[in-house]
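OP here, attaching both records as promised.
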Amino acid sequence: MEVPIQHIIGTVCLIGLLVSVGLAYNIITDSAQTEVRQHQLSQISQNVALSLVEIVTLANFGNSYNGTMTRSLNLPTDLAGKAYAVQICNDTSQQDNCFIKVYLAASPTISATSIIPIQASQSGVSLRTDSGALNENQNITYGPVIYGGSNDTVVWAWKGSGTTWAGLGRLAGG
């Protein structure tokens, strides 16, 4: 039983068409998912930047010194099952601009940034982009990067006599 060459060519073309349609579908859905994730990351970065500005403003307008103020961040634990990170950056190469960068932990190229409208040299504010711990009434562990959201994620500000320190952190007992 001989199979004509036309049937073989037709079958190979149909299989090729099926594969190309499947690949096109994957590419389109991946692109849509990336857009949605970038929008979600943008909302998180704007929320964190706004919260940081608010806590710094409250600390600066308060009359007490050597007091720590905190504000809990209500962040999602993940984005559609993907872990993400929130990073505070102090870019001195661009006129002392500070910004929040939020990115997917597995794909750092999928990210969003929001500028923090604080110019540290003019306002006496120093953003902590290192790691450490604040020990006062509450134990706060701070660092430049916080992964995901949980109930113990905070922005904090500590007002000293000449400088207000601020950053991202986690409550130790939370």
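Record two, same layout:
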Amino acid sequence: MKIDKNTQIPNTPVYVVLFGIVFGVNVWLLVFRNESPTNWILYALTAVAVFAGLVRLALKRRDKHARTS
């Protein structure tokens, strides 16, 4: 039996799971732990995650547009 080690997972499901975990943990901590002293860290991490997602999408669109032109 031959095992194909060159398979690649598509980026979209990986990013959906990653952002789901980050936002899930953030929402859980912010909603159920109102007086947590680390809330400012969670807000900053949420902003960084959103910014990283937007940059990733922008770079992907730019590369796709550059290839078609």
